Amino acid sequence: MVKKAKKIKKNNKKVQPSNKIIKKRNKKSENKKDLNEKRKPEKKEIKEDLKIPNFKLSKKILKGEFGGFENNSFCAFKSIVNDYFYLVYIWKGGKGYLLIIYDLINNQKLNEIKQDFLDNIKHYEDFKNKRDIVLSFSTIDRNLKIWNINNCSIICEIQFPNKINNQYLYSCCLLKESNQQFSIVLSLSEEPIQIFDLNGNKKKVFKNSISSGGISFLGVYYSNTPQKKYVLMGGYSCCKSYDYDNYKMYKSYLCDDSDGNYFELEINDNNGKKELIGVNDDGQIKIWDFHSGKLIKIIDANKRNLGDFNYRFGACLWNKGYLITGRTTEDERVRYLSKSRKEDKKGYSIQIIDLINGKIIHEFFEYKYMVNNIKKITLPLYGECLLVQNCEYIDLWIKNE
Length: 401
Prior knowledge:
This protein is mainly β. It contains two helices and 29 strands.
C-alpha cells in the first residue's frame, strides 16, 4: 500500500526579501490588463504573433561544472505571492542533491533544500491557497514531494513502495480539479497511470495506459470547448490522450518509430484547431489533430546517429507558428570555438522550426554540449525571452529587435 502523505509544517529557511525588488503590483492596472486580454486580437496583433523571433544572449545566469546541473530540470515563474521571479533548479552536490531557489531579477540565490535523490521539478500556481508550489520527484527511490516555495515548507510527501523489482516512478504532474484542489497524476513502471489526492489516496486508474518502455511525459490539457480535462502521455514510441472524467483512453496517436523514441508533448492552437505536437529524442517532430488522432505532418529537424541516445532534449512553443528546440546531434555546420584548446570543434545549436511550413528557418546558439531544456518566460525588464540550459550553463536570451 502507498504510505499516507505526510502533512508537514516545516520551514527550512524563510526567503528574505531583497532591497532591489521591483515595485508592488498595481491592482487597478492588473484589472485593466485582464479586461484587455479578453478582447479579440486585431489583425496587426495576429501578424506580430507570427513574426519570426530573433534572439541575442543577454547573460549567463549560472555556470556549473559538467554534471553539476543534474537532469537539466528547472522551472521559472513570477510569484503570485510576492514580487520575486523565481528560478528553481536541481544541483548535484557532493552528498546528494540540492533544490536551489534563485531570484532572477536580482541574480542571487535565495535558498537551497537538501534531498537524497531528485530527478525532476514542475511549477504550479495554487490560487486557492495563495502560494507557489513546486512538484519534485525521484525516479530511483519513488519519492514525491510538493513544496511551498514561498517559505520552503513541504505541503505533502508520498513514498511509493517497490512492488516490482527495479520499479521506477517514471513521470508525474499535477491536475487542478473543478474545486481548485490539486490531484497527482503519476506513472510507475509496469503499472497503469494512476490518480492520487494530496493525502496519498488512490482515486482513479486509467485503463490501457501501460507503456512497455516507460513513460517520459505526463501533462494535462484543459479544454474549454467542450469543458473537459485530458491527460497527455508520451511514452516509448507511444503517444496517447485520456479522458479524465471517463477514466479511459481518448485517442492514440500514430508512432511508427521502429527504433523506439521518447516523446514530450505540447498542445498548439492553430486558428482554433487543436494540434498535439510530439518532439522525440530522435530530433523528429510529429503533429497530430488532437481530437481525430490523424497525423498531419512530420518534421525531420535533425536525425541522430543510432548510437547517440539523448533522453533529455529541449523544446518549447514560442507562439502558435514556431517551435524552438535543441539540436540532438553534433553537426559539422555548427561550430563551437573552444577557448581553452583554441580549436574549432563540432557543436550543438538551437533551431527555430516553422510549424506551418514544416521546416527549419533559423539555426543559432552554438553550444559545446547539447541543449536539454528551453523555456519561454516573460521578465519585467526584457519582455518575452528564453531560458536555455545544458550541463554547463543556464543562459538568458532576449529578443533582438
